[in-house]
Write a structure and sequence with these properties.
Helices cover about 25% and strands about 30% of the residues. With about 150 residues, it is an alpha+beta fold. The strands form two sheets. The protein has a seven-stranded mixed beta sheet, covered by helices on one side. Strands 6-7 form a two-stranded antiparallel ribbon. A hairpin with a 5-residue loop joins strand 8 and strand 9.
Length: about 150
């Protein structure tokens, strides 16, 4: 697991509009990178909408969501809920693996690989300020505001 003070793994992924987005592109400002299992499902919708709802309260801090969903599905999710921040497609799970959130999961006795809902607050120099593994949708915005002293 990544720890506070670790260098955040770099990434370059395509967003819901087909544009490349990199961690380096957020240099000199904080960014919340959160991983969610699947766009437009109840928990992911709640988490994303709650984060969108606090975007005016977090100053220059950016919000970036990452899931295995393809860009068209991310775009549909963004438009449906008017989220207003980048949703990145990690279809090959490379970034999820780098952040240690691609895990073996189990449902109804069936094991499979998937995203462990997690969030990371990264400073403008690429260092992890906070790492929240297994975070609940409701706690994501609350923890972000607390971490920012809001």
């Amino acid at each position: 697991m990544l720890q506070v003070g670790d260098k955040a793994p770099p990434f370059v992924l395509v967003d819901q509009h087909g544009q490349k987005v990199s961690l380096k592109g957020f240099a000199k400002r904080k960014v919340l990178v959160y991983f969610y299992p699947k766009a437009d499902t109840p928990g992911c919708t709640e988490q994303s909408c709650l984060l969108s709802g606090i975007s005016d309260d977090i100053g220059r801090t950016a919000i970036v969501g990452i899931s295995p969903d393809a860009p068209p599905k991310q775009l549909k999710f963004d438009l449906k809920y008017e989220l207003g921040f980048p949703l990145l497609a990690d279809e090959t799970h490379v970034v999820a693996k780098a952040y240690k959130v691609w895990k073996k999961k189990s449902m109804y006795g069936r094991e499979y690989m998937g995203i462990e809902r997690s969030a990371f607050l990264i400073d403008g120099n690429g260092k992890i300020l906070f790492a929240w593994y297994k975070i609940s949708p409701k706690d994501t915005p609350k923890f972000l505001l607390e971490a920012l002293g809001k």
